[in-house]
């Protein structure tokens, strides 16, 4: 019988949307290191697709009154990174963004909504391959959601361990809800808040 760790990886798609897994984003704002002392955060959105995830994180951080946080957002797909930098979105991906938020953070551009510089300037996009390159820096928060599902179980465990190496002790690793088994055995505390699970690095 074939070991599941040897199954081929799936072809990744760029499915994403604004404010996806809201409770996890809210948990980051509450549980990230030093947030209660006002320190600024360096965050990584790994596998950011067309930018909705890092911009959503920027949105919730800004709405919490935090102005100094920075987000590095990476993906292997250059065409998705180009769309992310252009930051124009249609109604479907914005379906969880209510009218007040659209007015605050976007301006209408024909059929699309263009993100305002207040959020765009918080995010820097770069090409990076999670499976082949070491993490670019160390971070207070690493989001890698709905990416490891495209890896086979062995690749997913190795990638989760590498992502955790990029998290400063006490910082947070946030995986997609169904990807959490890839973190079994890693030196993390599993923290639950309002139905969301995030992982705090302990080792
Ligand atoms: C389903 S999207 C997830 C987007 C976002 N994280 C979210 O949850 O809404 C998966 C993204 O992972 C990217 N990806 C797949 N393999 C990757 C790798 N080895 N390194 C970096 N990004 C990768 C794909 O290009 C795709 O844009």
SSE blueprint:
Layout: H1 22-31, E1 42-46, H2 52-63, E2 70-75, H3 78-86, E3 88-89, H4 99-105, E4 106-109, E5 112-115, H5 117-120, E6 123-127, E7 139-144, H6 153-165, E8 167-175, E9 188-193, E10 196-201
The structure holds S-adenosylmethionine.
Compact summary:
With 203 residues, the protein is α/β, with parallel strands linked by helices.
Explain how this protein is built.
There is one protein chain. By secondary structure, the protein is of the alpha/beta class. It has one domain: Rossmann fold (3-Layer(aba) Sandwich). Helices cover 27% and strands 26% of the residues. The protein has helices spanning 22-31, 52-63, 78-86, 99-105, 117-120, 153-165, and strands at residues 42-46, 70-75, 88-89, 106-109, 112-115, 123-127, 139-144, 167-175, 188-193, 196-201. Helix 2 (52-63) links the parallel strand 1 (42-46) and strand 2. The longest helix has 13 residues, at 153-165. It binds S-adenosylmethionine (SAM). The site of S-adenosylmethionine has 22 residues, from helix 2. Residues 12-16, 20, 47-49, 52-53, 75-77, 80, 129-131, 145-147, 150 line the site of S-adenosylmethionine (SAM).
């Amino acid at each position: 019988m074939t070991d599941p760790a040897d199954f081929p990886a799936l072809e990744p798609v760029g499915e994403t949307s604004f404010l996806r897994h809201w409770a996890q984003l809210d948990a980051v704002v509450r549980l990230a290191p030093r947030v209660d002392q006002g320190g600024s955060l360096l965050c990584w959105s790994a596998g950011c697709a067309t930018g909705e995830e890092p911009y959503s994180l920027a949105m919730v951080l800004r709405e919490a009154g935090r102005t100094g946080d920075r987000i590095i957002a990476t993906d292997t797909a250059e065409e998705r990174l180009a769309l992310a930098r252009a930051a124009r979105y249609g109604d479907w991906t914005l379906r969880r963004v209510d009218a007040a938020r659209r007015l605050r953070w976007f301006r209408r551009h024909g059929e699309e909504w263009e993100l305002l510089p207040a959020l765009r300037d918080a995010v820097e996009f770069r090409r990076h391959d999670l499976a082949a390159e070491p993490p670019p820096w160390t971070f207070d928060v690493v989001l890698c959601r709905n990416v490891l599902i495209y890896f086979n179980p062995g690749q997913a465990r190795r990638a989760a361990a590498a992502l955790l190496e990029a998290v400063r002790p006490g910082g947070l690793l946030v995986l997609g809800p169904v990807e959490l088994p890839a973190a079994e055995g890693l030196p993390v505390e599993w923290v639950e808040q309002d139905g969301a699970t995030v992982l705090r690095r302990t080792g």
